[in-house]
Amino acid sequence: MFAGYRGSMQARIVIVDDRSTNLRVYAQYVAMMGPDFSAKCFHSAVEALKWLETEPADLLIVDYRMPEMTGATFISKFRERTVGAHIPAIIITARQDRECRISALDAGATDFLQSPVSHIEFRDRAILLLGQYQKQQELKQSLASSNRPAIDESESDEGSGKSMLEQIIDTTPILINATDRNGKFLFLNSYQAALFGRDPEQLVGHSLTEILPPDLVEREQRRNSVILETGISIPNYEEKFVSEGIELTFHCNKSPLLNKDNQTIGILTTGLDITARKFAEEHRTHLALHDMLTGLPNRTLLAERMRVAIDECAATGKGAALLLLDLDRFKVINDTRGHQAGDVLLRQVAERLSAALGSNGFAARIGGDEFAIILQNLASHDDVVTSCSKLLARIGEPYSVGGVEQLIGASIGIALIPEDGNSADELLRLADLAMYEAKSAGRNRFCFFSPRMNQVAQLNAGVENDLREALNTDQLFLEYQPIVDIASGDYVGLEALLRWQHPARGRLIPADFIRVANDSGLIGRIGQWVVDKACAQIAEFAADGIILPHVAVNVSPKQFQHGNTSAEILEKVAEYGIAPGKLAIEITEELLLDHSQEVHDQLARLREGGVGISIDDFGTGYSSLQYLRDLPATRLKIDQTFIARIEQSSADRAIISTIAHLAHALNMRVVAEGVENEAQFALLRASGCDEVQGFLLGRPMTVSELRDLFSNGTARFETGVR
After folding, report:
1. How many CB atoms lie within 10 A of CB 190?
2. Which end of the chain has fewer surrounding CB within 10 Å, N or C?
3. 335 CB contacts (<8 Å, ≥6 apart)?
């Protein structure tokens, strides 16, 4: 027998994988299962098939992606054999698409393991399948040993053996029994008797209640009563039997047992073992309703559970809540460590969610790094607060990914059932609004939905439509704010600032619409418009003999996520004949956090094309020094929150001075934003800043005002600071 079961029979496990490392790991897993288990390993699928033609095996472990053939093809070829083709087979795959798994099931795979595989998961799955296979083999052996060789009818008439019909019934791998009206066995074949570890003769005359477990007895008696009362058969139902710890599933039929006078004297029951088929069907169902990476339910199953939760709230009066949880800073890990590390992290998050929720919670992965959670049986809002605090604490604990410690957070949006709605789609929408509110409020927190959010969402929908119209009807325009050299007072730069002349709301600044632009995806079109307009106006001034200092345009991180932004900018530079050093882009620290090699390459191409790069709002985000060192930036702009406190805070003065020294060490110029008075100007000059920008130096100017400023040559700002 196999380890974990009675007896001690060796089990031979055949492992097929073209990678030596995997073979060593899986062979070690088999060795750790105990001395009753042995592994036979093959690099070649062809060689494994040839070996299996003459050698027995108890379990196959097969990699899906192999050079000679897929794991599905391997199993299909193996199943074509007439001897031993029924042994269980596990496919190991790193792929997550359903088509791959369904094709393997169609080929005859019994189960799957997701790579990378843990020792415990490998052991448990192997033991389960070996146990089921063992039980089936025992039943067959029991049938074979309980029957004599076939004899003809004349010999059986003399009592020398069973009749031909009895032998056929006994050797058929189908459960067959007959009971009288009181539920006592009149007959059962050897196959069924072997399920109970007895001979048929030992069970005849005994009642169902003496042999079967109570729950099964109750179901059997209920069905038998219906047949005895109505004389109508009960076809095509499924029943489970547990034999020596192994659960088997049978497709059963019951019909009246009639005497020669056509009277019902008992019940005839037959059952076909469909355990393997049910396993495959359940696996298909699981694939359709679960996320293959984490094993959590998917959107389809979430929708079903939400309908159940809504109905239960209506029936019981108890509350429930839908939580939408989005991981914070997951993309950084995914980009810097790779997708495999990201997948490992997502699986760990899923495990923590499942462990933290308990019996009154349900978690699903609905895409990317987004999870949905249903909390039920809530007595008050405090229960939701407690659960969310617990979830944030668990998710915020360190993760080990490839031996490296990683930290992430989460933002949670909450929609209450039934207070906020009783439609699954509507509740998801409202929880999504609340989740974005949590992110906007600083991340790593939770937020309840409120009607105000819905009003904001409706307003944003209107803004989005208006913004699309603005792009098509020339409602957008640029203003320019000067940047001054702190030592000479010369105007050495301009920042192009986007404005929107809304037909109903008047002049709008980016704070009024930029979030909608980002969320709707319009930021890409807007960014392209800004670059085009800035380049056109630089060229227009140059054609009139007015040479402007460099012009900086803001570029959203989302523009780098979609499309080749560097190529688009350089195309405009070439189209308008912009001289090197006359155009710069400003990027925020958010782009540093989402830094990837592709982004770095795009920025490097911009620098090679003569476009300057400024890091905007430095000091307000995560300020990664590693990324700062590696990026080809030319300027570092200190956020105005530090400037506003410089007169009162020695700590802020020290921070500004430190940033200035750091930037100079990296060959960057330092720009201070939001300078409003001469005291700030003097302190910034003393702290080592190179350039300043703010209302003291000049408010944003129209194109006409800009022309007046620079029409007489190089302009200079005069300050009272000496």
Report:
1. 23
2. C
3. 594, 595, 596
The CATH fold assigned to 167-278 is Beta-Lactamase (3.30.450)
Superfamily of segment(s) 11-144: Response regulator (3.40.50.2300)
Assess contact for 708 and 482: CB atoms under 8 A: no
pLDDT digits (tens, 9 = 90+) for 401-432: 888 888 899 999 999 999 898 899 999 999 99
Give the pLDDT band (50/70/90) at residue 493: very high
Collapsed DSSP state (helix, strand, coil) of residue 160: coil
pLDDT for the residue 622: 52
> Per the omega criterion (within 30 degrees of 0), is the bond before 418 cis?
yes
DSSP string covering 316-382, please? H--EEEEEEEEEESHHHHHHHH-HHHHHHHHHHHHHHHHHHH-TTEEEEEEETTEEEEEEEEESSHH
Q: Using CB atoms within 10 A of its CB, is residue 442 exposed (0-12), middle (13-18) or buried (19+)?
A: exposed
- Does the pLDDT value for residue 117 go beyond 60? yes
Q: Is the pTM of this model over 0.85?
A: no
Give the pLDDT band of residue 224 (cuts 50, 70, 90): very high
Residue 151: band (very low, low, confident or very high) from pLDDT cuts 50, 70, 90: very low
Domain 464-710 has CATH 1.10.10.10: no
* Bridging pattern class, strands 669-672 and 691-692: parallel
The residue ranges of every structural domain in the chain are: 11-144, 167-278, 294-449, 464-710
pLDDT of residue 141: 63
Helices and strands (DSSP H and E) totals, the chain: 29, 26
Please name the residues in contact with 587: beta carbons below 8 A apart, sequence gap of 6 or more: 555, 557, 603, 613, 614, 615, 616
Q: How far apart are the C-alpha atoms of 460 and 516, rounded to whole Å?
A: 6
Report which residue type is found at 168: I
Residues 6+ apart with CB under 8 A from 112: 90, 91, 92, 93, 101, 104, 283
> 5: pLDDT confidence band, cut at 50, 70 and 90?
very low
The CA-atom distances, in angstroms, between 370 and each of 299, 431, 445 are 11, 12, 15
The span from the CA of 51 to the CA of 45, in Å, is 10
| Residue 612 contacts residue 605 (beta carbons within 8 Å) | no
Mean pLDDT of the region 698-712: 91
423-426, Cβ contacts within 8 angstroms, sequence gap of 24 or more: 423/310, 424/303, 424/306, 424/307, 424/310
Cβ neighbours around 238 below 10 Å, total: 11
Which two three-digit tokens encode residue 37?
A: 């288990």
Q: How far apart are CA 368 and CA 360, in angstroms?
A: 25
Helices (H), 609-712: 625-630, 640-644, 650-665, 678-686, 703-710
Chain segment 313-342, per-residue pLDDT in tens = 988 888 999 999 999 888 888 877 888 888
Output the six-digit token pair for 457: 């969402």
Residues 185 and 179: their CA atoms lie apart, in Å, by: 4
* Average pLDDT over every residue of 108-128: 82
The strand pairing partners of 374, in sequence order, are 322, 362
Placement of tokens 């890409």 in the chain = 524
Which tens digits make up the pLDDT trace of 589-610? 666 555 567 788 888 899 999 9
Comparison of pLDDT for 671 and 145, the residue scoring more = 671
